[in-house]
Model the fold of this input.
Amino acid sequence: MLITVKLYAGLRQFGPQTQAGEGFQRAVPDGCSVDQLLELLGVPGNAPLVAMVNQTVVFLQHELAEGDVVCLFPPVAGG
Amino acid sequence: MTDLSSRLLALSEVKTVGRDEAVRVISLANVVTLASETGLNRREVEREAVRGHILPSRYLRSLGTVGWEGQLALLQSTVGVVGVGGLGGWVLMGLARMGVGRLILIDGDVFEESNLNRQALCREVDIGRPKVDRAAGWVQEVNPAVEVVTYRCQVDEAGMVELFHGSHVLVDALDALPARLELQRAARRLGLPLVHAAIAGYVGQVMTILPEDEGLLGLYGGGQVPEHGIEAVWGNPAATPMMTASWQVQEVVKLLTGRGELLRHRMLFMDAEWGTVDILQVP
Done:
């Protein structure tokens, strides 16, 4: 199935070179979870991040569906 | 007050601004004179002036965006800021310049040398001095009409609820995730809007959280969260806090003046390295 992935800030390095701010399409196996997507992208397992699917914050075990838009961004806490 | 009203009229003059709009203004010197004459403080004189559509000259360039009602609302407002570091310094400077009447500032830290690269209030001479003291001094130099209440301490949720009582808006300029969640809970208990921002490297995020919104608790979960985010690796260069804090100032002004559309349920996420600004829909 095809999903759209948008990577932000330091996580951009784990996707293809796209225009800044644009997402990319990615084929993943049916039933793929966010966790498995991260593995497919080569994001280290311990990388701190927040995952949103179709504008809802999800746990990494969340199962993806065809056409989902996945946003991955790092937690930011500095002041 | 009749006496003050007539004195305000006598000491003000009509100026033409913008496209032939006539505005009655009063100079800084005359506001000071009237405060001295009446025994009122500068804020009270400014409020009375604005009520009578006499604008202290210092706010002339704000009038086109905030209007008379907006300027009066700002002068009558209290804003609580937690954190007087990279974000908080710029935030309080912006709010003081806009004429927010009262600022409650909480920060337990003293300035360190590593603050000099980005913290607006930090000068070499300030190293080792409490941040809130320097903040109060700066406001006194730039806009003494603004009342500043400072607390040099670390506070938990209960402490914030107590110290921010009477505020209209709270600002999150903290530097650790658990404390930010405590602040959101405190804002909820007080029924107050909270303007959140956080920075790391070239990245900044901003959102306005109303008491009923999930906000940070929705984003990071209400349980155990790490103390720090990616800033622990990327650090904090000079430009990011300026850019991010500016958005916070604007959100506070919008909340207080009732203008524009808030960054509510929408988190502005900027990455200055790549020149992108995204709006992430959040719960």
Q: What stands out?
A: Chain A is about 10% helix and 30% strand. The helical segments of chain A are 34-41.
